[in-house]
Fold this sequence. Notes:
The protein has helices at residues 10-43, 65-68, 71-85, 91-116, 120-130, 145-166, 196-204, and strands at 46-54, 57-64, 138-142. The chain is mostly helical. Strands 2-1-3 form a three-stranded antiparallel sheet. A hairpin with a 2-residue loop joins strand 1 (46-54) and strand 2.
Amino acid sequence: MEYVTAVPHPRSEAAGPARAGRISLAVALLSGALGAAVALLATRRQWSEGTATVAGGDFPLTASGSDVTGVPASLAIVGLAALVAVFAVRRLGRVLVAGLLALSGAGTIAASLIGAGDSSALDEKAAQATGDTAATVAELSHTAWPYVAVAGGVLMLLAGLLALRYAPLWPAMSSRYERSGAPRPRKAPTVDPDRPEDLWKALDRGEDPTGA
């Protein structure tokens, strides 16, 4: 009996990395853009609230994420820029940009977690409301929005890690513009000296039909 050994087709071998590249690209784009959008949205929401004691009684105070810290919003913008730049660079540049995207996500996570328990923004508002620089906020409480910003940072971090791992399989924006946009030079038509019409056409083009 003869045994036939199946030989893997080259196309099937190339399909695996190509499919992984497409899936990772889609996941990275979705998670990166969504994470940055979530982080930006969360910083505009209320993160904490409390009261300040004034002459007329307790005065309610609130602080948004941007009041507490501007780091998550700034890093979300940096992450978006890095996500786009991943497709505009190659090789080492792509690795560096992917690392920046991952660091933006990690920084957003850290800043949001720190801001979740921060009271300095409300203490500053309490000092302004009471006119006493030593005043602090009372009945301090926090919302869930800082942790929403953390979730956005996690998505950005995921996009950065995917870019670090699979970016070599992704298409590059610059590859579409490798060819010059200038029109290709046309070859000069061959002039047959025995054909008067060719001589006249060459003269009309400003060429020397004699080749001198």
